[in-house]
Design goal:
The complex is a heterodimer of chains A (358) and B (259). Chain A has a single domain, classed as ABC transporter involved in vitamin B12 uptake, BtuC, CATH 1.10.3470.10. Helix content of chain A is 76%, strand content 0%. Chain A is built from 14 helices and no strands. In chain A, helix 5 packs antiparallel against helix 6. The longest helix of chain A is centred in the N-terminal third of the chain and has 35 residues. Chain A is globular and about 65 Å long. Chain A starts with 7 loop residues before the first helix and ends in a 7-residue tail after the last helix. In chain A, 49% of the residues are buried. By secondary structure, chain B is α/β, with parallel strands linked by helices. Chain B folds into 2 domains: 222 residues, P-loop containing nucleotide triphosphate hydrolases (Rossmann fold); 31 residues, no CATH class. In chain B, the strands form 3 sheets. In chain B, strands 6-7-8-3-9-10 form a 6-stranded mixed β-sheet, with helices on both faces. In chain B, helix 4 packs across helix 5 and helix 5 packs parallel to helix 6. Classes of the chains: A mainly alpha (358), B alpha/beta (259). The interface between A and B is large, with 46 and 57 residues.
């Protein structure tokens, strides 16, 4: 298989692959530009009557007080109400998108997401438990966050332990996840049944998912967790590619399949947990963002994972901006909105006859 | 580089699959493994690649495989499974590129791209290079999987029934490819085969297994006869020679013998 002289085909193949790579980088850059544009638009939206000029002046004045002059009202609305919510939407969407892409890759299943695996059902149960029974001493808000977070990790541990009994494989993990999803859903329903009307209302509202309660502190925490996980995820993306060919082939290419699968599952659960404990259940981002991305740039996880994050961020910010404006001054919980914009996307993917996509 | 397998045994739980298998394969040799379903061909291949952890010794190129890291093993041995797992939306080019995993940390080097381009060119599948794996035929897919194994730069290639799902033309093309690879690159090939006619044409030697044991090992033309096929497969067969090729024609199952 020596190089034959004058083989124009070789050059053609190389160029074609380079073009493909460039296209994928362009997609990533395009997503970043789109996000910036969305931030620019989203900051001007809201129930308070601020003009576009007032909003940007308020932002500018924060960084360069000498250059621009703003009113305290505009500054408060932009900085205390809008910006952290917008950035949180991006961070949460990024985390849910990348977590979904990881789970789909690790489990080789297009329907895997934190929601089909019972992880969000566990979070809902944790939150319901606190809402219905309360915990003495702690303020309810913090207790709900902690309980949702802990139960999410508990569900992950449950999936891991159950599937280990059968031998860790995509099938065993998915089955274990489905078992846990039904278990936690039933227990949540039971709590709703025994709870008072106002408790029931609060539980249901929590499961809608909302970015209403974001703060700069929560944003920082979510960003730090995702940022800390990201390098490891990217380092393992090549192994994840190999695992797409089946566990045994991946092993034959030197991948420690069980370790990679376990760690990436844990990381994607951790990212999901730190997001949904603050927001409640936000569906569809983890499922849809990787699918859209895969359609656009293919299945190489080195590009798919970060791009799914960016697409997820754009989707969640769009959903939240719509949720804040379509019925203004009323704000629709973003979890409802993601499903509304997620379903048409999904239908489109479902009906589009594109062979070779999965 | 010789492969020496000594006293290799393997069990799934209580069920013993391989009973003390020993054999050697020389550099550049194509060694076929034949035998009825369930005789342990696939298990043997997976044990040699350390996908399973067997008892006994596997020595290759003077080193014991159990002392090597998985990446070191992957740089020496490549494996093509019988059934292909369909994963993500990967193109042919990307799938072949996966074979460079033992040499790549994260970024793809020009050498990696060069190697993949060369093998695509060599196999004459340029027109498929950027198609999705799900859009090509079974025969083309099998070639892609062998190409993926080849860019792994192995010294030993393990193939599990590479032709079992292919049409006549692709069977011949894949077998010729395997033979050429072993000749040109001095790669040893260990290959599970069902088709004894193909095996006798393309394998330098044939190892016949039954119930986890080696029952015969040698040149196909010297090895294959009516008695062996009756003992191993429980089938009455006729063996003929036509235009230089050995032909095994199965006639009927032997009553009272369980293969």
């Amino acid at each position: 298989m020596d190089q034959r002289p004058g083989s124009g085909q070789l050059r053609h193949l190389r160029d074609e692959y380079h073009r493909f790579t460039v296209r994928r980088y362009l997609f990533l850059i395009g997503c970043c530009i789109l996000l910036l544009a969305l931030i620019g638009i989203a900051t001007t939206l809201g129930s308070a009557d601020l003009t576009v000029g007032e909003v940007y002046t308020a932002i500018l004045a924060h960084f360069f007080p000498s250059l621009a002059e703003t009113t305290p009202l505009a500054s408060t609305i932009v900085w205390e109400y809008r910006l952290h919510r917008i950035l949180f939407a991006i961070a949460a969407g990024f985390g849910l998108g990348i977590a979904g892409a990881m789970m789909q890759g690790v489990l080789r299943n297009p329907l895997a997401s934190p929601f089909t695996l019972g992880i969000s059902a566990a979070a809902s149960f944790g939150a319901s438990l606190v809402i219905v029974f309360g915990i003495g001493g702690l303020s309810n808000d913090i207790a709900i966050i902690v309980a949702a977070f802990l139960f999410t990790l508990l569900a992950t541990f449950g999936i891991y332990t159950l599937s280990k009994l059968r031998g860790i494989s995509p099938e065993s993990m998915i089955l274990a996840g489905i078992i846990l999803m039904y278990l936690f859903s039933a227990m949540t329903s039971f709590l709703q049944y025994i709870g008072t009307t106002s408790q029931l209302q609060e539980v249901v509202f929590w499961t809608f998912g909302s970015l209403q309660r974001t703060t700069w502190g929560k944003l920082a925490l979510v960003t730090v967790v995702i940022g800390a996980c990201l390098p490891y995820i990217m380092l393992r993306s090549w192994d994840l590619n190999a695992m797409g060919q089946g566990d045994q082939v991946a092993k034959s290419m030197g991948v420690d399949v069980n370790q990679t699968r376990t760690r990436l599952m844990l990381i994607s659960s951790l990212i999901t947990a730190i997001i949904i404990c603050f927001t409640g259940v936000i569906g569809f981002i983890g499922l849809v963002a990787p699918h859209i991305t895969r359609l656009a740039i293919g299945g190489d996880n080195r590009f798919l994972l970060p791009a799914s994050g960016l697409v997820g961020g754009a989707l969640l910010l769009t959903a939240d901006s719509l949720a804040r404006t379509v019925l203004a001054p009323a704000i629709i919980p973003v979890g409802i909105m993601t499903s509304f914009i997620g379903i048409p996307f999904f239908l489109y993917l479902f009906l589009r006859k594109r062979e070779g996509y999965w | 580089m010789t492969l020496s397998v000594r006293d290799l045994s393997f069990s799934y739980g209580d069920r013993k699959i391989l009973h003390g298998i020993s054999f050697e394969a020389a550099t550049g040799e194509v060694l076929g493994i034949a035998g009825p379903n369930g005789c342990g061909k696939t298990t043997l291949i997976k044990c040699i690649d350390r996908i399973f952890e067997p008892q006994g010794e596997v020595e290759f190129a003077g080193k014991y495989l159990e002392d090597m890291t998985t990446t070191e093993v992957a740089q020496l041995i490549a494996y093509v499974p019988q059934a292909l797992t369909m994963g993500m939306a990967m193109s042919v080019f990307e799938t072949i590129l996966l074979g460079r995993r033992p040499y790549i940390r994260w970024s793809v080097s020009d050498t990696d791209i060069e190697r993949v381009s060369m093998i695509i060119d060599d196999l004459g599948i340029q027109h498929l290079a950027f198609r999705s794996m799900t859009q090509i035929s079974g025969g083309e897919r099998q070639k892609v999987m062998i190409a993926r194994a080849m860019v792994q730069d192995p010294s030993l290639l393990l193939l599990d029934e590479p032709t079992s799902a292919l049409d006549l033309r692709h069977q011949l093309e894949v077998m010729e490819l395997v033979q050429r690879v072993s000749r040109e690159k001095q790669v040893s090939v260990l290959m599970a085969v069902h088709d004894l006619n193909l095996a006798s044409r393309f394998c330098d030697r044939l190892m016949v297994m039954k119930e986890g044991r080696v029952v015969a090992l040698g040149k196909p033309s010297e090895l294959l006869n009516e008695t062996l096929i009756r003992d191993v497969y429980g089938v009455e067969a006729m063996i003929t020679r036509q235009s230089g090729f050995l032909q095994v024609i199965p006639v009927c199952p032997v009553r009272g013998i369980l293969a």
